[in-house]
Amino acid sequence: MAEVITMPRLSDTMTEGVVATWLKKVGDKISEGDILAEIETDKATMEFESFHSGTLLYIGLEEGEAAPVDSLLAIIGNEGEDISALINGVSVEKSSEKEDVKSEVEVVAKNDSNQEVSIPKDVKIVTMPRLSDTMTEGTVATWIKKVGDKVEEGDILAEIETDKATMEFESFQSGTLLYIGINEGESAPVDSILAIVGPEGTNVDGLVASVKAGKNPLEEREIQVERKQESVQEKVIETMPQTVTVSENTVTGRVFVSPLARKIATDKGVNLADVSGTGENGRIVKRDVENYVPSVKVPSVVSNTNVSSVKTFAPAGEVNIEEVKNSQMRKTIARRLAESKFTAPHYYLTIEISMDEAMASRKIINTLPDTKVSFNDMVVKACAMALKKHPQVNTQWKDDVTVINHHVNIGVAVAVEDGLVVPVLPFTDQMSLTQIGEKVKELAVKAKTKKLQPAEMDGSTFTVSNLGMFGIQSFTSIINQPNSAILSVGAIEEKPVVKNGQIVVGNTMTVTLACDHRTVDGATGAQFLQTLRSYIENPVTMLA
């Protein structure tokens, strides 16, 4: 029997995925565990394996196409099996859903008008998240927040037990926890009502009663109707020639646009008058706004015959721009770094370190068989040991508490083709120089070949970013939250230095510590750098 494969949720924040590469093609034999495709998420490009055996009968998304989680990705079944009904069933089912949902909304409006419950202003319904690609239900292991507690975006609401692990679930909204829908120890399917967050004092009794009765608020229902309608339109448009219809009524000047498309256009700053609609009767839908590319208007040159006959030089050229679609990783980098820069009050401390002893020690260490230690490995080890002496730098800020980490997990920034990832070295202080070197190389290779797993990028307490290999003398970095600090490492320079009153040639390296002033005071950051310098300038002390 044929199995429908849907777009998996490969990270806790993933809402849509892009098929980077298909590793199998229609007609190929598939065994359970075979890699079907590489899926680009908001964090990384990851391999997606098949949980079924058979023949790949149908591919629903081409390479480079994006689709929401749970969209049709592929169909696997027996060779020669007729799946036309299954494929057509998607369109037929959605077409009937379009009719049924429309009538459903009308019935609610007419027959139950006295019981309609809308979501109060600024109130957000939090649902059971899909925290793994195979998760169908979750169990609330522990509630970190209770009803009445203040909640900030990024706060941990609860610990959710999935089919693979128990994971922390953070809030994407700020407000007050008004209602808990699933108690500790209780299980519920994905997308069930988990909690309600909103302004303090908001009356959500009607909303809670509606939830307990198994009803969805009218506002959520309308969004579902629209998404189903647009999904049906997309399927219909794929099977018939597309004609571009101007969606503006030339008589009234009205623009026909769906509410979801209007909201996306507002968020992106797109003028709907410039967008051509491909929906029913030229209606602008979500797809039109997302695919809209503004045209470049080249200003015309107006000549003036009354101007002096002396001609000024006017360079002739053509305006040439290119727009590249942002990858999920690039979007996440932009969002997280902007959040860090504009929420954490950064300040910077810079120090110069003598590298003569470090260079001599490294040369000796690397003479050992099968041993290769880099200067970056020495910096990471020194940071780990300095953090044990200055735990205030190894902290995380929360509104009500400061979390002091007594374990040391250092993240090492690695540049990849699509951006930047930060694989983590767990319990770095317990690792030797050679172990650090081997682990960093292993994680760097995984990062560059897109094999890095989300678990290998979680849990850092401090970050090291090194641009010395590019000849950069010094630079400042943006803190990788929830860390409180990040160390920027520059190149080793040979230059004149003063030793014992004499000017001699020495090797120095400049490092800059970026600190979050909410958790790390200036004196604390300075003391950390002093300890770091003592370790690097005297590497033998790191072996004690």
Automatic annotation (TrEMBL):
It is an enzyme of class 2 (transferase). Its cofactor is (R)-lipoate. GO terms for molecular function: acyltransferase activity. Its EC number is 2.3.1.-. It comes from the Bacteria. SUPFAM superfamilies: CoA-dependent acyltransferases, Peripheral subunit-binding domain of 2-oxo acid dehydrogenase complex, Single hybrid motif. GO terms for cellular component: pyruvate dehydrogenase complex. Residues 256-293 form the Peripheral subunit-binding (PSBD) domain. Residues 2-77, 123-198 form the Lipoyl-binding domain. Coiled coil: none annotated. Belongs to the 2-oxoacid dehydrogenase family. This is Dihydrolipoamide acetyltransferase component of pyruvate dehydrogenase complex. It comes from Myroides guanonis.
